[in-house]
Specification:
It is a single chain. The longest helix has 33 residues. With 397 residues, this protein is an alpha+beta fold. A seven-stranded mixed sheet has the order 5-6-2-1-3-4-7. 47% of the residues are buried. The two termini are 33 Å apart. It has twelve helices and seven strands. The protein folds into three domains: 100 residues, Butyryl-Coa Dehydrogenase, subunit A, domain 1 (Orthogonal Bundle), CATH 1.10.540; 95 residues, Beta Barrel (Butyryl-CoA Dehydrogenase, subunit A, domain 2); 151 residues, Butyryl-CoA Dehydrogenase, subunit A, domain 3. The protein is globular and about 75 Å long.
């Protein structure tokens, strides 16, 4: 059964303000988050209480069904306090958006009894897929399932031959907690709190209605459109998800810059006695970093304004636009890596100690860059090839 929401939908400003109030709390919990290899349960509870997981969830299940710009504003603000927490919020809450693309029965399976139920993922096409009557049987091992400790379902990737083209197509399989095991292997130099463990499945049955085709996400021909007809759910899957793993870097960079302004940029050298406030290189770094953050946010919101406008008109952005937007998302982590590195170096040797928040941001942002969606090279080469008249080879756009 679905639930009607009698609650007044919050404002974007109100949600961002709630996230801002959590920033100092998240900074205090950052060491616990990192050492425990998962986001603390109190933080997930805070996110639930603030309604952050509802932002992209359908109103049919008590969600707010707000625009993606609101969600990414909240995620970036959370990242100012703890990038691991923001990363988990980003990918797990975006799954509430993706579930709305699935067949209605799949949504009911997950949210029918408890609309606050959360979903993790690993989209690696690792599933060994066997078609059977009524669905598929899958087996496999997947890595990097962020936030899985807090989730009762998982989206897992696999390849299925497209009956129309005969080519393998990427599919997502929705699997309940009882059908997968978590292998606690996460022990990393950055984003330690994401708890992105491996998961395994041994010959589990997945009904056909609990699958989602990449081509439907690309063309916005999703089975969930029957019950979730809003423009939010007509956006291309590839455009929405990639921002969930790039936007937290922007917020973490802002948080590091704020700390640098408060402490690092005002330090006095132990050797020369000179104040960093008079260092022209420090002054330029501050200007360039804040300007870059503003530019990256502006591009994010401009791109989704375009995609939203098309979706409201029942249209999809053209291929060149989608490739460009995808490349711009992939560039974010690299730009943030370059800037956080300069901040880290400018802070002097005090920044090398474990627990230093700028050092933590340095490691987190660099670790986020390793996500395949944040690699601008393959995305950029494909974009350039298409501009030169060659065929597109990326469906995740």
């Amino acid at each position: 059964m679905t639930i009607a929401t009698a609650l007044k939908r919050p404002t974007t400003a109100g949600l961002v303000e709630q996230a801002a109030r959590l920033v100092p709390v998240l900074r205090e919990r950052a060491a616990e988050c990192e050492a425990g290899n998962k986001v603390p349960a109190d933080t997930i509870r805070d996110f639930q209480d603030a309604g952050f997981f509802k932002i992209l969830q359908p109103t049919r299940y008590g969600g707010y069904e707000m625009d993606v710009e609101t969600f990414y504003q909240v995620q970036m603000k959370v990242a100012e306090g703890c990038m691991s927490s923001a990363w988990v919020l980003g990918v797990v809450a975006v799954h509430n958006w993706q579930l709305a693309l699935f067949a209605p029965q799949a949504q009911e399976d997950v949210w029918g009894e408890d609309p606050s139920t959360l979903i993790s993922s690993s989209y690696m096409p690792r599933a060994q897929v066997t078609p059977v009557e009524g669905g598929y049987r899958i087996t496999g091992r997947w890595g990097f399932s962020s936030g899985v400790d807090h989730c009762d379902w998982a989206f897992l990737g696999g390849l299925v031959k497209d009956p129309e083209t005969g080519e393998p197509d990427f599919w997502t399989f929705l699997v309940p907690r009882g059908d997968f095991q978590v292998l606690p292997i996460w022990n990393t130099i950055g984003l330690g709190g994401t708890g992105s463990h491996d998961v395994t499945v041994d010959d589990a049955f997945v009904p056909a209605y609990r699958t989602h085709r990449s081509k439907d996400g690309f063309a916005a021909t999703n089975p969930g459109a029957k019950v979730n007809p809003g423009a939010l759910y007509k956006l291309p899957f590839g455009q929405v998800f990639v921002r969930a793993v790039s936007s937290s870097s922007i917020g973490a960079l802002q948080g590091a810059l704020d700390l640098f302004l408060e402490i690092g940029a005002r330090r006095v050298s132990n050797n020369s006695g000179a104040s960093a406030t008079g260092d022209p290189d420090v002054q330029m770094l501050i200007a360039e970093t804040q300007s870059a953050i503003d530019e990256m946010k502006t591009m994010l919101f401009r791109n989704f304004a375009h995609l939203n406008d098309r979706a409201r008109r029942g249209e999809q952005a053209d291929l060149e636009t989608r490739l460009r937007f995808r490349f711009q998302s992939a560039q974010i982590a690299t730009r943030c890596c370059e800037l956080i590195s300069r901040i880290y170096y400018s802070g002097g040797a005090d920044g090398i100690y474990r627990g230093n928040p700028i050092a933590r941001a340095f490691c987190d942002i660099h670790t986020g860059r390793t996500h395949v969606a944040n690699n601008p090279n393959s995305v950029g080469r494909n974009y350039g090839k298409v501009a030169l008249g060659q065929p597109n080879t990326d469906s995740f756009i």
